[in-house]
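task queued by scheduler; priority normal; single chain, no ligands, no partner chains; default sampling; output format set to C-alpha cells
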Amino acid sequence: MSGSVCIQSRSLHNHES
C-alpha cells in the first residue's frame, strides 16, 4: 500500500507547486 501513499503525497506536492 506504499503506492497509495506515494500518489497522495505527490498530489499534495503538486498543489503546493
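post-processing summary
- The mean pLDDT is 70.
- The CA atoms of residues 1 and 12 lie 17 Å apart.
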